[in-house]
Amino acid sequence: MRRTNVLTLVIVSLLISSIVSVHPVTEGSFSASLATQDVWSQTAALPSPRSCSVSPPESSPPSVAYVANVSTLAYWQRELAMRVNESRLLGLLTSLTNFNSRHPFTSDGNASIDFVASYLISHGISYTDDWFSIPKGVWTGTHYVYQYYWTRNLYITPWGINPSAHSLIITCHLDSARQGLLGMLPTNAPGANDNAAGIASVLESLDILYQTHRPTSQWNVLFAFLGGEEGNGTRPLYGSNRVISHGLNALGINPSTSWALNIDEIAYQGTIWPTILALYRYMTDDVTTIQGSLNAVSDNLGIELIDMQLPRAENLASVQSDFGWCISEWTLHTNNIPSITISTNQYPDPYKHSLYDGLSHCAISNVVNTTKLIIGLLIELTFDLPSTPPALATEWVPILSAVANITITDYLDPLLPKFQAVVLDPLINIDNTLLNYLSRLAQPLLILGNAGA
Q1: For 124-178, how does the pLDDT look when each residue is reduced to its tens digit (9 = 90+)?
Q2: Which is it for the CA torsion 389, 395, 396, 401, positive or negative?
Q3: Where do runs of H (alpha helix) occur along 324-391?
Q4: Which pLDDT score is estimated for 27?
Q5: Are 423 and 397 contacting, i.e. CB atoms less than 8 angstroms apart?
Q6: CA separation for the pair 139, 137 (Å, rounded)
């Protein structure tokens, strides 16, 4: 280490211990103070570090953030995965299953969609409504009379649309099944696994990414919450067909450069074998990019994820026979959008669409892990990490630790107002917008070298 660097380290240590003791900052304070713009120019007249001793403060050491470049995709996947909140997911699951039914032919069908829309608004997330009708045939004794029930899709494009970019469409259906199976009397299934769990997972991942994501022009991302997927008793998949017939064109998304990720039935605690998250894909679909990214994320986060290819199904009936009534992936697949579904290995379980589909049979750990996979996938595909030289943290932090509790944070990571001072790594290169943001969060902010230049 150069002599000048050592002397600068000592100065910063002294500044931290002295300034924090003079200007204590309580948690939640957002007052700004730029302590120095150039520490380097103050080093010439200082003694050698060998003759300079630094006494620790009598009170508890201050809490200091050392902001450096430690950005990698794996780092961000692990960082944001830790922000997934199991209690918040369980609250969403409970609210969604408390509706009498989420089927579009019931009074609560649209009320449950209103709940999701209100959740988005309360979290500052804008959405687009796409209303459409579903026919229901009523037999009069001689012929059918059709009644039409209105429902809607909700579309969110949180980082805008670039018509020339690739697109990832993330879908989950909002409605629940109409009646139970296994010879039970017709009744409304609670729909915890199918698909309240998927709704909760997508909402949580969207919220976390919306608050932290740095947009990139490489990928468009569409979150599509689908109504009417459970259908009218003779035909399903109204919501996903509406995406194809109207939604993509209205939003300016090119289907020929799009891929889809469907989230459906991710949490059922099966009666046949232990529940494991699985990827379902058609062998004829080229989903190498999406599947490879999901596998990389699952390895990084330690989430078990198995591959279950769908058969070369030639029609919807064969898909329903093997994998259930509603599988939105089929719509996208048959419209030449390569698709993959995160679900579980429980598709053959005959109880999953019945009254057993309540919270007590819902594996919340699967909801948490699916949320982490969605977040990790979008980081893998879309996070744009600006280039900056590697940090000097290994040189600076040991000496600074003599007078403060040092936490190394990434320069793209939003700082919580819990630090009494912030030190910027000498090699970091940030713009004035981020510099001003940091100055509002910390008192003092110590800027070393050419940071922010």
Answers
A1: 999 999 999 998 877 778 887 888 889 999 999 998 999 889 999 999 999 987 6
A2: positive
A3: 329-334, 364-382
A4: 37
A5: no
A6: 6
pTM of this prediction exceeds 0.85: no
**CATH code at 317?**
3.40.630.10
Report the domain count for the chain. Answer: 2
Nearest to 297 by CA among 186, 372, 229: 372
Between 88-92, 112-116, 186-190, 416-420, the lowest mean confidence (pLDDT) is in 186-190
- Please tell me whether residues 67 and 80 are part of one structural domain: no
- CA distances, 300 to each of 100, 133, 289, 408 (Å): 39, 43, 17, 21
Residues in CB range of 235: below 8 A, 6 or more apart: none
Domain that holds residue 140: 74-382
Structure tokens at 208: 């976390």
* Residues recorded for the chain: 453
> To which H or E segment does residue 439 belong?
helix 432-441
- Domain contains 407: yes
In the chain, what percentage of residues exceed pLDDT 90? 34
Report the C-alpha gap between 451 and 445 in whole angstroms. Answer: 12
Phi/psi at 8 (5° precision) = -65, -40
b/e code 216-234 from CB counts within 10 Å (16+ = b): beebbbbbbbbbbbbbbee
Q: How confident is the model at residue 54 (pLDDT cuts 50, 70, 90)?
A: very low
Name the one residue in this structure whose structure tokens are 């449950």: 112
Query: 285 with 339: CB under 8 angstroms?
Result: yes
